Structure prediction request, 283 residues.
Amino acid sequence: MQKRALAIHDISCLGRCSLTVALPILSAAGINTAVVPTALLSTHTGEFTGYTHLDLTEQLLPIATHLASLGLHFDAFYTGYLAFPQQVELVLAMRQMLCDAQTQVFVDPAFADHGRLYSLMPATMPAQMRALVKTAHIIVPNLTEATFLLGEAYRPTGYDENYIHGLAARLSALGPQSIVITDVSLSEHETGVAVYHRDSGDFQLHFKPKFQGVFHGTGDVFASFLLSALLGGLSLDAATRLALRLTHECIRLTLEGGEPLRYGVQFERVLPELIAALAGQGD
Ligand code: PXL
Prediction:
């Protein structure tokens, strides 16, 4: 049976992040994907100025009420960029209305990177987002979001595997069974992800050679590949390795193509690889 997901993120018209990557990636993976936009922006808020920003907070519950009346089963409830801290409470209400015992609640906190909150993000977002994280099955924070969610200081470098293991365990103690932390770097030449599964106690780190630069939207691209692979039946560790490999490939192609980095990464060119991997022909 075809899997069904609900993706709740903003729409940034241009710049390849949030719904404009989540929808094509999940669709390419064969997942029937419904979307609920949290805000409408002309671009993302990194490396652009003068962008528009339409708040869609008022639409969240009316949309959820109508969708809930259809009585559909969602295999995944996938949340990303929320425009305001007040939206967290509404998304929790949507979770109550639209999820059942089989729905995977997959939360990408999407409020900060490189030690700083995103441009428009109020300082109260990390504490608010913790409430949504508590109800999730899987969370996909980057290292900045992981520390901010815990109210801890961000450490850009100079940490070891034990520190990351501890962070993942402390995040899992908030509620989620599975933690995938991105932007983990134990040496200046490599970057990668940590995977932690509370019940089994499994903890793995996976790395790729590091490219220099800030790659907008790659958290969203990675999370969307990861969810696609999980819904495709891969284990958490195998799904994480696939998502890391494909995200690395998106960045490599983008750098090779010479496109300005603020326009996001060329994930479109990697979709055939995602499809092949999920068909059992790839990795
Ligand atoms: O990719 C995360 C993201 C999503 N949506 C908007 C953003 C960002 C990151 O800057 O600005 C609007």
